[in-house]
Amino acid sequence: MLKKLWDNLEEYILVYSMMFSVALVFVQVIMRYVFSNSLSWSEELARYLFLWQIWLGASYAVKEHRHLRIEIIQDLIKTRKGKICFELFVMVLWLGFSLFMVYEGSTLTKILFMRGQVSPAMRIPMAYAYASVPVGCALMSVRLCVEIVKSIRCITCENGGNV
Predict the structure, then answer these.
(1) What is the dihedral of CA 90, 92, 94, 100, to 10 degrees?
(2) How far are the Cα atoms of 36, 48, 79, 84, 160 from residue 52, in angstroms, in the given order?
(3) How crowded is residue 144: how many other Cβ atoms within 10 Å of its Cβ?
(4) Which of 160, 138, 144 is nearest to 89 (CA)?
(5) 106: which of 39, 56, 134, 146 fits an S-S bond (Cβ 3.0–4.6 Å)?
(6) How far apart, in Å, are the Cα atoms of 67 and each of 53, 84, 94?
(7) What is this structure's pTM?
(8) Is the dihedral of CA 109, 113, 115, 118 positive or negative?
(9) Are 32 and 38 in contact (CB under 8 A)?
(10) pLDDT digit string (tens) for 73-108?
(11) How far is CA 60 from its chain centroid?
(12) What is the C-alpha to C-alpha distance for residues 52 and 17, in angstroms, rounded to an integer?
C-alpha cells in the first residue's frame, strides 16, 4: 500500500489538484459571466495550486524520464557505459541544484512564515505558496537519488559486478 502511494504520489496529487483547479476556474467563469459577480479568492487559489502543480510535476517528470534535455553531447558518446556514466554525471549535478533549491526555498519560506505575509484575497500565509519550491525539489531530489542508484547498478552489472 505504501509502495503504491510512493510510486504514484505526485500523480495522485497532480490529477486531483488539476480536477479541482478546472472546476474552480469553471465556477469562476460562470459566476462572472452568468451571475455578473465573481469570487474574490478563486483566481488566487488557482494560481497557488498551479505553482504546486509545477513543482510536483517536475518531480513526477524525473520519475517518468520526461524532462526536456539537449542530447548533443550524449549523442557523441558511442558506448552504452559511457552514456550511462554521462547520465550519472548529469543527474549528480541536477541533484546538487535540487538540493540547493530545497535549502534556499526553505530559507525563503521560513522568512515568509516569520514575517507573517498573507495573500491579498484569501489571507493565507504566502509561505504556503512559496513552500511548493522546497517540497517539489525535495521530492525531485529523492527521485533523482533513485535514478542515480539505478544508473550505478547498471554500470556495476556491465562490469560483471565490480565497480
Answers:
(1) -150
(2) 30, 7, 39, 31, 43
(3) 22
(4) 144
(5) 134
(6) 15, 17, 12
(7) 0.88
(8) positive
(9) yes
(10) 888 888 888 888 999 999 999 999 999 999 999 999
(11) 6
(12) 9
Q: Which amino acid is at 53?
A: Q
123 is written with which cell numbers? 489571507
**Band of pLDDT at residue 162, cut at 50, 70 and 90:** low
Looking from the CA of 68 toward its CB, the CA atoms found within 13 Å total 0
Q: What is d(CA 67, CA 87) in angstroms, rounded to the nearest whole number?
A: 13
Instruction: Determine contact, residues 157/80, Cβ cutoff 8 Å.
Output: no
Torsion of CA 58, 63, 64, 65, to 10 degrees: 80
The DSSP line for 47-101 is HHHHHHHHHHHHHHHHHHT------HHHHH--SHHHHHHHHHHHHHHHHHHHHHH
Which three three-digit cell numbers place residue 124? Answer: 493565507
Closest CA to 57 of 135, 128, 149, 1: 135
